[in-house]
Amino acid sequence: MSPTAPADPTDTGRILDALQPLLPDLSVGALLGFATGVALRYIGRVVLIVVGVLFVTLQLLAYAELISINWLRVQALTEPWLRQGGEQGAQWLGRVLTANLPFAGAFSAGLLLGLRART
């Protein structure tokens, strides 16, 4: 068979027959992954709003001289924690979300689509 010759239609049929038992797991995995991705986006937005409101509140209290904030100390305390969380957090979340899932590949693909979806 030459490289430019069309594929044998029976090959495609055999591939589809082999994949048919896997389709329910793949579709459920992709759907659950997409839903999880969208949920994580919304939760992330809420967390960012809460952090922003907290920062504005602290700044207003500091402006009114009700409290004094040592921002250099805050940075020194949080920087190692945030660095470690950023490096290990994504790996940990991936392990937690795909633990014991036979359709982890479809779930992961759906999760990435859900995180990027414009809903």
From TrEMBL:
Main localisation: membrane
Keyword check for Transmembrane: yes
Top-level taxon: Bacteria
Alphabetical UniProt keywords: Membrane, Transmembrane, Transmembrane helix
Residues passing through the membrane, by range: 22-40, 47-72, 92-115
Protein name: FUN14 family protein
Subcellular location: Membrane
Family membership noted in the UniProt record: Belongs to the FUN14 family.
Any one Gene Ontology cellular component term annotated for this protein: membrane
Pfam families to which the protein is assigned, alphabetical: FUN14
